[in-house]
Amino acid sequence: MTELSHLLEECFVRCRNLDAPLVDRLQAFANELRGFGPHFQAAVDALISRLRENDAGAAAPKVGEPMPAFLLPDERGELRCLNDLLDEGPVAVAFNRGHWCPYCRINIDALARAEEEVAGEHRHIAAIVPDRQKFTLWLKSDARAPFPVLTDVDNGYAMSLGLAIYVGEELKQMMLTSGWDPSVSQGTDNWMLPIPATFIIGTDGIVRARFVDPDYRVRMAIEDLLAALRSAD
Amino acid sequence: MEMHQIRYFLAVSETLNLTRAAERCNVAQPALTRAIKSLEGELGGELLRRERAFPHLTELGERMLPMLRQCYEAALTAKMVAASIRNGDIAPLSLAISHTLALERFTPALRELSRAIPGLEINLRRGSDSEVGELLRSGSAELAIAGALPKAWPRVEEFPLFEEPFGLVVSRSHGLAGRAKAEIKDLASEKLLISTGCKVFEELKALLAANGIVGAITHQLATQQDVLTLLKVNLGVAIVPVGAAQENALRWIPLEQLNLVHKVFVYSIAGRHRPIASAALFNSLRAADWRFDIETKRRGEAHS
Hints:
Chain A is α/β, with parallel strands linked by helices. Chain A is built from ten helices and nine strands. Chain A has a single domain (about 5-230), classed as 3-Layer(aba) Sandwich (Glutaredoxin), CATH 3.40.30. In chain A, α1 (about 5-15) runs antiparallel to α2, α2 (about 20-35) packs antiparallel against α5 and α3 packs antiparallel against α8 (about 170-175). The longest helix of chain A has 17 residues, at about 100-120. Helix content of chain B is about 40%, strand content about 20%. In chain B, β3, α5 and β4 (about 120-125) form a beta-alpha-beta unit. The longest helix of chain B is centred in the N-terminal third of the chain and has 26 residues, at about 60-85.
């Protein structure tokens, strides 16, 4: 681990462990990250404004539309499909970027606590990342997540929903310096990532609520997710 | 980015002609141009150089092409799976696996596939690495799993699955069976069992010669399974990858001075349609945690 990645890990732990809502914990990490240098922030801001200007993620399933089916391996290699998950009740499907991403680790940590709250009500969460099983297993145990963490190889499912984005050469070099290398966990060197969108899906397979923001530093608020999941049928 | 944007870009990269690309995609040319412009906007650079009548790929376009194609094919697969997952139709899977690989390595993935796709019909072929590669190329197999194949085949895509070290394998009743490790000189008085197409034979012979062992008796056998069968009755010893020697009757021992690893890949043909079963298996194999699998087996051995 480089000195920088060590500092970033400390910073992550501090923010994850804050006794605060998810939105504030993510914001706290983003604020701390600004202290690490303006170049990284400039590259991130440039990517996000490019994505916004070109409506990245806008074509993803909207409220009232059916969520396309998937068949993806979970962290133990079991193939999970959306229909089977919906047999047990409404589901929140949360795309995340990978085990290396501090925002995703904070998000999965918050989702894990949310799942504990609603599992008894037959409402569940599933996370989807492009990482391979060794890393989904790690992500799951890191957050003590009771829900499956599914592998979307080469971001195929995300791409089919219009949620895959290309990191870009400039940000790629900066991420490598920070110790964030998705090519290792994805098993491919194409530097594609999903927009970390969240969909709440009713048992009929119809999207009841969605959160799609190309700014990966913000995620669906847990209160909104729980409210949508509880009102879904 | 969206699938149609990539589809249009791929069509332009293949035709190098906007009119023909638009025809192929069944779309008006201005719409095709607009979609590619939007993709360029998202990527932050131009993919096509348009100054002349016929477009050419820019440096960024060339660099992005294989990445976009890979992601696009993965997305096509995801859409196809979505369309066919619950129809219960017969789902054929033609798979070729090199006989240097123990089938046990792949049984968890096949069992899971059979559970998730009730209509699964497996057609499994075995052969040497190159035979397995030929089955893939000729279309007799949708996926092939084997060691390294020659790079000369243009449309064959390879994805690394795992690496496993070669070592010495002996019967449990063999004199070396209790050893934690062995050395080349331990092989001085042993007979060697070799399977046809064994890639490490030449390297092994050189290693033996370097240690003063020449003219060792070798049995040439058709397949690795035959090697394992004769190993069990103590006809000799063999050098095989760790994954091939998981049977109880055999012992795998690290061989000092031998730094050979068996690299295993899953192969497919770029652009060829993958039916649901091979698409799902392809993703399972790529996602699988092979290292964990070996550790589980080792822990299992330690308990037994």
